[in-house]
Amino acid sequence: MKSRSAQLVVLFALLNLSGFSQCVVSQDAQKRVITTCQYYAPKNGLLVNRPDRSQALTQVTFLGSEYLTYPIWQDGTLESGDPKKPIPCRIAFNIATNVVKCRFAGDEREYEVLPEGFTINDMRFTSQVSRKVNKTNRVYYMVLYAGKTRLLKQIRSNLSVVKRDAYSMEQPFDGTFIHSKTYFIQRNNEKLRVVNLSRKSVLGVLKDPTNQLDQYLTQRKLDDYQLVNAVAYYDGVQK
User: Fold this and answer.
1) If I label 35, which of 5, 117, 146, 216 is the partner at 20 to 30 A Cα–Cα?
2) Which has the closest alpha carbon to 94: 139, 124, 60?
3) pTM for this predicted structure
């Protein structure tokens, strides 16, 4: 029999990849974003979607969600073709699966779309094309700075489930969605290069023969704002 942790991972993959609607994102009494899922579990431990007499309805609750925002649907615009003609729609961006969905005005249906970019809550996202086994996908990155050099941030969400046993203390959640951030620098449309929030990493990625960036960056650890300023300064001193 599979462990409960393994079952929950399989459960969430099935609920999302199969398009089921048993998972609901909401807020609890403490205003925390939570994801509540329901499924039927027979005695053999398998996860199924059709109940019978040997199955019981089971509910699990996770802290956080796999979406960028709460509420998950936000007003935004899509970029496709002509950048001067953005397409308005309500957007739900799933940062666990990298899927963008839209609801257009006057139409309650949800459409899975592959825009070149999109904007939501004043956050602009652009995409890079990824090709695997004759299939083309788009990976979306938040644009932090766009000059001769671009600074991008990829936000992902992964589910970490709780391993329960008879001796563990009672846990309020069956798992937590953990959001992670990865920063990238792109120079002259070349390959994306990972950069960390540190002076050493920035100087390693942005080669400056004049050493002006070396003198400009004085702090060892950086935040998003300082990283943006460093890239903008680098652009300003390059010919």
Assistant:
1) 117
2) 139
3) 0.83
CA proximity to 231, closest of 184, 182, 192 = 184
At residue 222, φ and ψ (nearest 5 deg) are -120, 160
Angstrom distance (rounded) from CA 85 to CA 89: 13
Alpha helices in 52-198 (DSSP H): none
CA distance 2 to 8: 10
Note the maximum CA span of the chain. Answer: 75
DSSP per residue, 160-195:
EE----TTSPP-S-SEEEEEEEEEEEEETT---EEE
DSSP H or E stretch at residue 101: strand 99-103
User: Mean pLDDT by 10-residue block, N- to C-terminus, for the chain (239 residues)?
Assistant: 54 48 87 89 56 68 95 94 86 95 92 94 91 80 95 95 64 90 93 96 92 93 96 88
| Block residue for tokens 């592959």 | 114
What are the residues whose beta carbons fall under 8 Å from the beta carbon of 61, sequence distance 6 or more? 34, 35, 36, 37, 172, 173, 174
Torsion over CA of 161, 165, 170 and 173, rounded to 10 degrees?
Answer: 20
pLDDT for the residue 44 = 56
d(CA 84, CA 57) in angstroms, rounded, equals 50
Contact 40, 48 (CB under 8 A): yes
User: pLDDT at position 157, please?
Assistant: 94
Q: Report the alpha-carbon distance of residue 28 to residue 65 in Å, rounded.
A: 13
d(CA 37, CA 58): 8
CA atoms of 124 and 115, how far apart (whole Å)? 12
Q: What is the pLDDT of residue 18?
A: 39
